[in-house]
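Form 7-S
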Amino acid sequence: MRKHTVDWFHRSPLLFAYKRMASLPDYLFWRLRGAPGPKVPHRIKEMTVRQTAKEFGLRVLVETGTQYGQMVSALRNDFAEIYSIELNEDLFHAARRNFARCPHVHLLQGDSAVVLPELLQKLAPPLLFWLDAHGGAIPLIQELEAILSDPAAGNVILIDDAHALEGNIWSLTLDAVRRCVANRAPEYTVAVRNNIVHVRPAHALPGSAEHRTAK
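Output:
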């Protein structure tokens, strides 16, 4: 009975409301504790995505790893279009129900290593990417290779959970990410701030031709 109730809650709009209400207290408590690392509240992640989009003039967000839709819910009013990819079918269907009234939110189900390259063929760069489809079978390198296949596109990438890459918690390291970026887009820089890996074109300035809003 308890498991059934928990599963229902995870699939319901109530979880979205709870996540949004809990984000501010979580952030304030984190600040009161002296902002300890390495993990940071989700509110910091939301602020980072929002600030990066503003800095580079990006109006389209592509996310891998929808999970419970917390990032989409927080940023649904900040982007003209949002695309989010989720592998788990139950989470995908729950998110699709919860965002049914948001026509600019596009939810895709499947392996991001497969779905993302297909999606990129349909979207006009530059785009902002929030890569959060981590876990056992990590598709991160495949995602990076697809996004950086055209370095001149000016795409900007944010990768969650830098501590797992730096601490070798997964079967992938931050050095491997750096090598992938260097091989695909040597003019890009890789930096870690607030447990987020920032992969961005070093030469492009906000407002330049490489940061035109996608039509």
